[in-house]
Write a structure and sequence with these properties.
alpha+beta, 4-stranded antiparallel β-sheet
Length: 175
């Protein structure tokens, strides 16, 4: 009986955290995705950077080509963010479920991404990476490289395409 209560409270806590992250769509246009095989390749004409230096790269998933970090963890856009605002709309409980993708560099190294890469300052003084002027995030429930469990959560969290668009047509899951 106590185990059932613990599971119930855990589910309730997650639901409350995600509810703080819901809302109406923002200004970024959706894209569609196919299901190619797993790869990571530089953009045509791009120079290849040593793998240890690359902070973001591309990978294939059931949602199509997506942006991932150096370890292969998927990254997401939040539709409540405003392009080029220099701020994240993810606050308080939202931050626990959707941690910022951060860097120590003013110009993060990427491979295969054609969207514009930048940074904004977070409330704690870190630098959060942006793609096409929108901050990017991890989903805390994505545990392994290739997980895309955050895709479409509350209809406000979407994977990032290499061009810097939101991928809105794919279901959650993995590579």
């Amino acid at each position: 009986m106590n185990k059932q209560w613990g599971v119930g409270f855990s589910a309730l806590a997650l639901a409350l955290a995600l509810a703080g992250c819901g809302g109406s769509p923002g200004t970024t246009s959706p894209t569609t995705g196919a299901s190619p095989t797993v790869t990571s390749a530089p953009a045509p004409g791009a120079t290849t950077t040593a793998a240890a230096d690359v902070e973001l790269k591309t990978a294939s998933s059931t949602a199509g080509q997506i942006v991932v970090d150096a370890e292969g963890k998927s990254v997401y856009f939040f539709t409540k963010d405003v392009k080029d605002s220099g701020a994240s709309a993810c606050k308080d409980a939202c931050v626990a479920a959707w941690p910022a993708v951060t860097t120590t560099s003013d110009a993060p190294e990427v491979e295969g991404i054609t969207g514009a890469i930048g940074t904004i300052n977070t409330a704690d003084g870190s630098k959060q990476i942006t793609v096409n002027g929108l901050p990017i995030y991890y989903f805390a429930q994505d545990k392994e490289p290739g997980d895309i469990l955050g895709q479409g959560v509350m209809d406000v969290w979407y994977l990032v395409s290499p061009a810097g668009d939101m991928i809105k047509s794919a279901a959650a899951g993995g590579y």
